[in-house]
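Q: Convert this sequence to structure tokens.
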Amino acid sequence: MRHARILASGSYAPERVLKNEWFNELLGEDVDTWLRENLTIKERRWMTDEQTTSDLCVEAGNRALEMANLSPDDIDLLIIATDTPDFISPSTASVVQNKMGMTNATSFDTNTACAGFPTALTLANSLIAAEERYKKVMVMGAYGMSRFLNLQDKKTVTLFADGAGAVILEPTEEAGKGFLSSDLRTRGEYHKHMGIYTGAAADPSTEKKVNEKQHCLQFVEKFPKELNPKMWSDMIRTVCERSGEDVSDVKHVFITQININQIWETLDILGLPHDTAPTIMDRYGYTGSAAIPMVFDESYRNNDVSEGDLAVFIGSGGGLHFGACAYRF
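A:
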């Protein structure tokens, strides 16, 4: 059966580097020690005033095209996973399609927050399987959350950052290679716990709300700390079972980069070594829907991924949404 395989990848983080010490001065207290000891974060990248989410996508997409030795008009379909779009409407994908000159590509956005990349991979695989006209598909995860941060809220301003990652997919009929299975879940009872709650139809932005920082990302309620490890480990087991694979054979877990301890707890539950999940949060902070393709691109370019390796892409984000995909390289 026709399904997707990864042909190339690319990623980009803005050149503007903010070290933890910058936030010590901003907030008037030592946040560096806690960030290093609990999250391993030392620095992160933020966009300049002239950049937008679509600009990050263009950089990542061009690097993926370069790896694949393709031109923009080779792409048939562009899917961008983001919850920090350039505009509420039109889609960021249409902006990127135009900026990159993808004249033959149709495009759309998807928003399952930080679970967006595995969700978009699943959508792309389904379209490749269903429609023979899709021969080269670009999937991006993009995050420009620095635009939605309250600079005085230490719970958010020190964690979140900007970046984009991309992969190019093509069809294959080789059994047991490429996309194997997925598992997408929603826990909607948590949709009011974290988010950006103004600027759309339920509560349009006003100058007053912007001035009062109500348009910014908010942690409203704490999530149960066991939720992510429990869901992630169960979903990794599920995609392995659906693929006819054993969890012990997983070589790589490309996972959202929000909490190092929850990543390790997940691997401990599964009996996998901690180095199964590479991390980049120490240098890039939390890049949301871009985190998974960014950490994958680094591993892929470093030749850490070998032919035949079994990998899982997995993340969770506001909503709450969860997404996981199993791939065999």
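The two ends are 17 Å apart (CA to CA).
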